[in-house]
Known about the structure:
It catalyses: CMP + ATP = CDP + ADP; dCMP + ATP = dCDP + ADP. One of its GO terms (biological process) is pyrimidine nucleotide metabolic process. It holds the Pfam family Cytidylate_kin. There is one protein chain. The chain is built from ten helices and eight strands. By secondary structure, it is α/β, with parallel strands linked by helices. The strands form two sheets. It has a five-stranded parallel beta sheet. The longest helix is centred in the C-terminal third of the chain and has 17 residues, at 168-184. The mean pLDDT is 94. Cytidine-5'-monophosphate is lined by residues 12, 34-35, 38-39, 94, 97-98, 101, 127-130, 178, 182. The site of cytidine-5'-monophosphate (C5P) has 15 residues, from α2, α5 and α9.
Amino acid sequence: MTIPVLTIDGPSGAGKGTVSRLVAKKLGWHYLDSGSIYRSLAIALLQQSVDLNDEEEIVKVAQNIVLEFECADELIVKLNGENITAQLGLESTGTVASVVAALPEVRRVLLQKQKDFRQLPGLVADGRDMGTVVFPDAQNKVYLTASAVQRATRRYKQLKEKGIDANLSLITDEIEERDRRDMERETAPLVMASDALYIDSSDMSITAVIEEVLGLIH
Length: 218
Ligand code: C5P
């Protein structure tokens, strides 16, 4: 039996995480936040002071990381037994994640970890290449985006709510830089799958986006 998968790809800050988590909850399906895998690797590399130009060492760390995920109200992630949830959302973590995510060997090593999430009764997977590379046979695919200004403003509010100091123009620059890196890399760049539903959430509420996504499944 083919296990159903719904993929939600798009640039950072488009609301993929919130939408995917709530859709997974509604459907009673598992949830894969693939960005958190690249972010966890970034944290491991920063913790171990690995030189980000040392590809061989980066791949070694990627091969050895042990990750545990708990999907409660928010996603809790443990890296080699340590709860790293608080560091996951930092912009600096996202930036290092996008640098190492461009390395083909890193992506190859982390591929199976992502595929393993495909379990009954189904999976909602969010990321950049869920519908194109990791689950190309997914029955339902969404490409969720929003304008860079909207995405930066959302990220800014999220950080502020968490009590993290943030600067809107810096976040906008970082988001644009990260988009560029994710879209222009040679391996698994962020592109819309040809069979994906395109949703621009710039002027939509989260509820409206969720309804549109659920409409695809039912
Ligand atoms: O989605 P999130 O912002 O958490 O992802 C952090 C970074 O990890 C992205 O900027 C991207 O470079 C990388 N990533 C990726 N492929 C995925 C998910 C995330 O390359 N499927």
